Amino acid sequence: MKTENLPVPTRPGYILAMLTLMSALAFMDRQILSVVIQPVKQEFGLTDLQIGLVTGLGFALTFGVLGVPLGRLADRRERRSLIAFCRGLGGVLGLMGGASVGFLSLMFSRAGGAVSDAGGTPASMSMLADIYPAAHRARAMSVLGAGASLGALLALVLGSWLAQNYGWRITMVVIGSTSLLMALLLHWTVREPLRIVPESLRQAPPVQRRGAVAAIWAEPFMRWTILGAALALLSAYSFGTWNNALMVRHHGLSLQHAGWISGGAALMSLAGGLVAGALTDRLVRRDLRWQMGVPVLGLGLALVFGVAYLLLPSGALVPASVLVWVFSFFLPWWAAPTYAAMSLVVPSQRRATANAMVLLAGAIVGNGMGAILTGWFSDLLSTRFGYDGLRYALLGMSSMMLPAMFAFGCAMRAYPTSYRKATQTQAKPHPSEPHQPKSDAP
């Protein structure tokens, strides 16, 4: 079935742009605390471990409760309204952070990002899978994934400027209010696209709601993918949360100067994600395994440049800037190809649930444990190494990219079998399959 022939009431490009911008605002809300760690820590007298709990635990606990249920809801109900509601509610909770009076209230406000992502991200990916054909799906997913990098860029550049001039409380209020307004705009201007159901499944009995999670987990490809994503995000969120503080402590930069360098890193991350999506769509025409081979390649290169960056001596600003930018370019290479692969092997009735399972693993292991473990290790190592304790803690967390590469490598080996099984069941050709004209792409 050709997506182009579907009566989608709103142009796909506009839907993609709206979903990406809302994802960027949600990630900006999550990232802003890492930008203002130092003034928040000083105002409330928090330790690095408490900062890790604020940035990670509130998000992880909320996502752990809501992630999969909201993903299953997106598979059964209108996704547009679910996205608008969750993104809007997340904005309201986020802006409440500006009224925080201490550790607990600040951690509560960070749950807004979890509400926003738990309801917004899986449903957004499900919508895009119904709008864009398989031959262009990795690129569409890369644009949506670029929302996280754009959000980080906004937090590090615009957020640091707002915090420097108006304080961290006003900054949180501005971000949350903008998220709420964008949620309302989505609800008013976007209609629900039709779900694509392959011809071979139209007469088949509907997917049973009970056992959807178990059915997804039963696929070897999905098990390795979930594990790889969790480990990759463990490194990424640890680095994203603490790198701004590292530049302030290790290189002696001001909050705004550190924000500009980190903003450049976010811009490179945005570019890297887009390149990975386009590269994957091109390489899978030669070999299906490149769908997961690109994530393995990206993480390997990111690990090399990340370790080199963390081993630099204090004050080496030029090489530090270059290395962190190159590291950031390769770090997101795993995301778009992975989510596109999932959309091709998981039935449309379970796509949002599958996306929610990957995001749940990332929320608990990556966003939850990453920030907390880094802060804990930093506190322990700082008793001996001073400010270098944070640098050594980040080195340890960066090493988690090695098992992530192993997991994605196993997913790469399992992908052709999973894809061909899905093709036989759903009659969906892949752009790399021989003797299939491009116009037959779903």
Structure commentary:
With 442 residues, the chain is an all-alpha fold. It has one domain: Growth Hormone, Chain: A (Up-down Bundle), CATH 1.20.1250. It has helices at residues 12-35, 37-44, 48-76, 79-95, 103-109, 111-131, 137-166, 168-189, 199-202, 212-217, 220-251, 255-283, 290-310, 317-330, 335-345, 351-385, 388-398, 401-426. The radius of gyration is 21 Å and the shape is globular. It starts with 11 loop residues before the first helix and ends in a 16-residue tail after the last helix. Residues 1-9, 199-210 and 427-442 have low confidence and may be disordered.
Assess the beta-strand content as a share of residues. Answer: under 5%
Distance between the termini: 5 Å
**If classified by CATH, what would the architecture be?**
Up-down Bundle
Uncertain runs are 1-9, 199-210, 427-442
- Radius of gyration using CA atoms only: 21 Å
Class computed from helices, strands and strand pairing: mainly alpha
Mean of all residue-level pLDDT scores: 81
Q: Helix segment count? A: 18
Shape: globular
What are the secondary-structure elements, in order, as H or E?
HHHHHHHHHHHHHHHHHH
CATH superfamily membership, which one?
MFS general substrate transporter like domains
Count of extended strands: 0
The CATH topology is given as Growth Hormone, Chain: A
- State the helical fraction: over 70%
CATH class: Mainly Alpha
Major sheet = none
Total separate domains: 1
Record the SSE blueprint.
Layout: H1 12-35, H2 37-44, H3 48-76, H4 79-95, H5 103-109, H6 111-131, H7 137-166, H8 168-189, H9 199-202, H10 212-217, H11 220-251, H12 255-283, H13 290-310, H14 317-330, H15 335-345, H16 351-385, H17 388-398, H18 401-426
Helix pairs in contact: 1-6, 1-7, 1-8, 1-11, 3-5, 3-6, 3-16, 4-6, 4-8, 6-7, 6-16, 7-8, 7-12, 7-15, 11-12, 11-16, 11-17, 11-18, 12-13, 12-14, 13-14, 13-15, 13-17, 13-18, 16-17
